[in-house]
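Objective 1b: paired records.
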Amino acid sequence: MGNITLGRYIPLDSPIHKMDPRAKIMAMLLVLVAIFFPAGWIGYAIIFAAASLTIILARLSFTFIWKAMKPMLFMLVFLFVINAFLLKTGDPLLTLGSFTLYSDAVFQTLYIAVRLLLMVMITTCLTATTKPLDMTLGIEDLLKPFQKIHVPAHEIAMLISIALRFIPDLIDETERIIKAQESRGVDLKEGKIMERIMAILSLIVPLFVSAFQRAEDLANAMEARGYAPGEQRTRYKVLKMEGRDYILLFCAAAILAGMVWLAYYR
């Protein structure tokens, strides 16, 4: 559980931390769209280099990013097994009895793994370098044009911010409950399937109770501070784009344009 780093803000003094949250959010969306273009390994290498440079400028460690990827390794292994049995195209790589592993199964899994890695790198870098309050303000400003069609921009931004903010808290609470259950003799790692299912149920119930209690405490705190959805609100902090923010957006747009060119015009 402690490997999950998405949603954790790391307070550091770096150029990426100081950038406007709107620029970082828009740049992330542009690069995420670029990832899904079939630009080949050259395109993925370009995005990986750009993401790595951003992580270095943000003064984040690659170990921190890798911790966000580790929980997904089981899913990738499961996906590889499914592809190995279902995809029967490409060159045969390995034959064991009646089973044959084809090249397309391997490459298809690698494509998905690389895409997932790039997505985790970019999203983790955004949440680690952007304060939850700045994230709320940025999302709200980006959604403001949709208010003309009665889209509740502030409420949506608040929901997203609260969800990201409480991911680390729920992970910490899960670890605390696991330790409490293990101290009472509950074994979550060994035993028969039904025993492990019952052990997991003993973990889920208190976790839900704790989550609802946190939600109620948050609602009471917001009401005590006079929060009213839909009302006009003033801001203590006003966002302002600077030159470095436009450079970031230009680089993200250039990456997207490059992926489109590699995918369709190369």
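Objective 1b, second protein:
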Amino acid sequence: MPDLQHHFRMEMRVRTVEEMAADFEGLRGVLLAWDAETFSRRPAVTNDFVVSVCRRYPDRFIPFGSVDPLKGEAAIAEARRAVRELGVKGFKFHPAAQGFRPSDPRHFPLFEEIAGLRVPCLFHAGTTGLGAGTPGGSGIALAPVQPIQFDTLAAAFPTLVIVCAHPAWPWQLEMNAVAAHKANLYIDLSGWAPRYFPPELTHELGRGLQDKALFGTDYPFILPERWLREFEAFDLPLDVKEKILWRNAERLLDLVD
């Protein structure tokens, strides 16, 4: 099983909840739980904890839960509880770190449940810093985060809203094609500073992906101030920037009053 503790090769200072809330003044961010216990053998960041933080700062954070697909029926029950009792607005999955393939029918009962709960799923897409540069990638495979995995899931569950997080390098063209083909599949722009976006991505942001792309930073690795400053330099019409920065997310998460 992989040891995920030391595989982020980035300088990052751990922030308190209060410091994080200060960094998001004037913004709204999705706060993510994390459960990869079966594959990583590391404790979860629980749904209850994430929801408690969001309740302290409801104007700044939106809770997204996490369930471990390898837990089977327990994951389904926790997904149901997280939405109905805790009020999470979606779920985050990292198939490479959780050790499962979204296209595997064994996990379809979980996604059928989430589709019925009418909340979106956010999936890590593209390569990951977890295990990078280590022998065997510390047991972490990249096939589960290839965009075609999410195409299969979107086809199987047309009412399930899927968001693929991060520029999906090295499969950006594949990601563009999947997002264009499946009306229930979107992308977010977190994890990369905008100055490093692949040209295949920036080309489409003002074209076919303008209604499918969502702002995101991957905090605290990239701070909102830097991301927004670099994005502002893009030569995009104002209405397109507004879609990407908040209008698409408002529609997707039903945040419009």
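The CA atoms of residues 21 and 56 lie 10 Å apart. Strands lie at 29-32, 61-64, 91-93, 121-124, 162-165, 185-188, 213-214.
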